[in-house]
Design brief:
about 200 residues; alpha+beta; two-stranded parallel sheet
């Protein structure tokens, strides 16, 4: 193989890579707005499921938890505020657990929704099940304590997934409730959690 052959092969590879890169860039440019629209639609549907009686759920602002950007919302029916929704993250066994928490005016949980996570299939992924998320209904931030025994006052740990259970209850949900309480019940705050 001569130097000329090596240059020819290298040039062919460069041309193929450039064309491939341009094709991928074009596909991304076309699909990116569609993906964004679909994600926004899915987020709005998830928000509506948390407080279905609301006429409107409006983003009020942003805050940061675990160095992750999160949002919070106000749910209204007419001019009456029904409650608030906060996005929060909890550090789980193998991922950050992205959670939405809906509360009423008294900061009692109406419903939670686990949006995404990377927890262990068959164990930690049980945090998505209604049997788990239903335990939060009617509870306050003071009740965000995980117990390994039977309990209705606090949150019962999922068998084999205590870390994931704590990540949702004692991290994501509790910190989300602390943030909302600071924001709406205990002064303005700057969007950060007490240390």
């Amino acid at each position: 193989m001569t130097g000329k052959d090596i240059i020819k092969i290298t040039l062919n590879f460069v041309i193929i890579y450039v064309i491939g890169g341009l094709v991928l860039a074009g596909i991304y440019a076309k699909t990116s707005p569609i993906i964004y629209k679909n994600n926004e639609k899915a987020k709005q549907e998830a928000l509506k499921k948390l407080i279905p009686e609301a006429d409107s759920i409006v983003k009020v602002g942003d805050w940061v938890i675990h160095e992750k950007a999160a949002e919070y919302y106000e749910a209204k029916k007419g001019s009456e505020t029904l409650g608030y929704i906060v996005q929060s993250f909890g550090k789980g066994y193998s991922s950050y657990i992205n959670t939405l928490i809906a509360v009423d005016q008294d900061m009692k949980i109406k419903k939670i929704n686990v949006l995404s996570h990377g927890e262990t299939p068959g164990l930690g992924d049980e945090i998505e099940f209604d049997s788990f998320t239903d335990m939060f209904k009617g509870k306050t931030k003071e009740q965000m304590k995980v117990l390994k025994t039977d309990t209705t006052e606090y949150i019962q740990a999922l068998s084999g997934a205590t870390i994931s259970t704590r990540a949702v209850a004692e991290d994501a949900v509790k910190n989300g409730l602390v943030f909302l309480t600071q924001k709406y019940k205990g002064g303005a705050g700057d969007g950060s959690l007490p240390r």
